[in-house]
Amino acid sequence: MDPNIDLVTKLVMADPGLPRPNPTKSYWQHVPHALANVQSATLPAERNYVIIGSGISGLSVAKNLLERHSSATVTILEARTLCSGATGRNGGQMAANVGEEYSHLADAHGPEMAGKIVAFTFRNLEKMQDLIREYDAVEASEMQRLQKLRAFLTEDTFRDFKKSIARLLSDHPSWEGLYKIIEKDALIKDHGIHGAAGGALLPAATVWPYRLVTKVFAALMDKYPNRLTIETNTPVTAVKNDPNSATPITSAFPYTIRTTRGPIRASNVVYCTNGYTGHLLPNLRGRVHPFKGTMTVQDPGKEIENRGKSTSWGFHYPITYDPKTKESGHGLYYLGQSVKTGYFYLGGENARIEHVVSADDSFVDKNSVTHLQTILPQFFGKSVPCKVVSSWSGIMGFSSDGLPLVGRLPKALTGRSGEGEWIAAAFNGYGMANCLMCGEELVSAILGDRKSDWLPGAYRLGQERLRDVLIAPESIKALTSKL
Ligand SMILES: Cc1cc2nc3c(=O)[nH]c(=O)nc-3n(C[C@H](O)[C@H](O)[C@H](O)COP(=O)(O)OP(=O)(O)OC[C@H]3O[C@@H](n4cnc5c(N)ncnc54)[C@H](O)[C@@H]3O)c2cc1C
Prior knowledge:
By secondary structure, this protein is of the alpha+beta class. It folds into two domains: 3-90 and 211-287 and 401-480, FAD/NAD(P)-binding domain (3-Layer(bba) Sandwich); 143-205 and 290-396, D-Amino Acid Oxidase, Chain A, domain 2. The chain contains 13 helices and 20 strands. The protein has helices at residues 3-13, 56-68, 98-134, 155-171, 184-191, 209-223, 277-280, 353-356, 366-379, 411-414, 435-447, 463-469, 472-480, and strands at 46-52, 74-77, 93-94, 144-152, 180-183, 198-206, 228-231, 236-240, 255-259, 262-271, 288-299, 311-316, 320-322, 327-329, 332-337, 344-347, 350-352, 387-399, 405-408, 421-425. A hairpin with a 4-residue loop joins strand 13 and strand 14 (327-329). The protein is globular, with a radius of gyration of 22 Å. Flavin-adenine dinucleotide is lined by residues 18-19, 52-58, 77-80, 84-87, 89-93, 235-236, 272-274, 276, 279-280, 293, 295, 334, 347, 394-396, 425, 427, 429-433, 435. Residues 18-19, 52-58, 77-80, 84-87, 89-93, 235-236, 272-274, 276, 279-280, 293, 295, 334, 347, 394-396, 425, 427, 429-433, 435 line the site of flavin-adenine dinucleotide (FAD).
């Protein structure tokens, strides 16, 4: 067997394990929220809904269940501190990637479905801003509405991007004006960006995601003290609905969720476990795999002007592979700038595949950090490296077909009978553009309480998807093509 295929197969099929107890320190969490370690004295015995995971997906599912079901009892089980997964360790970019992905989406799913995904993503981003305003979190989360400047480092990537946008507009003319294409000269002259073949501006925002999510959790705890508990530092080790298990089964609470603090029984279990999902649902290994991202905070000093109020950036380049070091560059650097400090929040990966297809955020890939430090000044036409203030890693969930998984889990994935297991996971690096509404739509399916046409059918767990594209060989093919 090709050694690369062998290695990638082992990596994607591996048990991601539980979230590591000693993660790297994310700058976003340097002042922990008062609820960081919240838990009840003892776990509640029975709940209508147990949600596993306290990131933005878990938040959205909890909020919608509590608001839309007047008596539902909800418990969130979180392995580590509150919001300590990808949501508390990401890039803070609220931006869509559907423009550059449109051609690929239309090829795979047809123009109508691709159009639904575009509409869903932009609607989700609007709803994120609504949520921030509703919870009076504009200041706390330092939200900035701005333009994202996507720059393409090679002629080929720029050409493909322009083709994708042209196809989007030809299929869906109502999006005319969303992307403003910028040619190379204007990129340097008007935007001070060097070394790129061209770019585009699109409406976007930046946010301090940890502060947003913890603030909304705190408000929910205040509003629903008798119906919501959050149990941090409570890893879930197994989910069962086995009638022969030691715990008695009642029809109202058929699921037993085993945790390190004892069991809890539930009518429904919702997995918002992102890159760790395969630990509790082994049949999803390979279909969803962890993808470890690297983030840095860098201080440019007085070298680079502070444009955090008006601009965030994404730099796209063809995937690279160095056969000597076996390091791959994964095609994107993303960055925003703090209005208050001028610090850049810059993420991207340049690492060996075993350091990327990994659920271990207890260390940072040093090569990726050095790489991120080296490339930053170049974009702005400077030569002095910025000072790294902080670096950390975080675990994303990637699916074999690049789309989130939203809906009821069939027996083929749980290995259990029963109708009460649900999932919203695998946002392929774009959770801020998807999770909120995926949670909302999942709750519509759980409660059966309102018809909504927003959720793209391609996100659901239909039979064809499970058979044809949500399969381990597709993950393996996508990853080995990068080596
Ligand atoms: C480095 C990095 C940069 C990123 N940058 C961006 C960006 O700029 N913009 C963007 O849109 N997206 C970005 N993302 C992706 C985005 O952060 C995610 O898609 C999104 O946060 C997913 O939210 P979630 O709630 O589904 O998962 P998470 O936030 O990962 O939450 C899952 C939670 O489940 C818990 N959990 C898992 N298993 C168990 C278990 N067995 N028991 C108990 N608890 C468990 C975990 O501890 C975790 O807290 C980035 C991600 C990373 C890692």
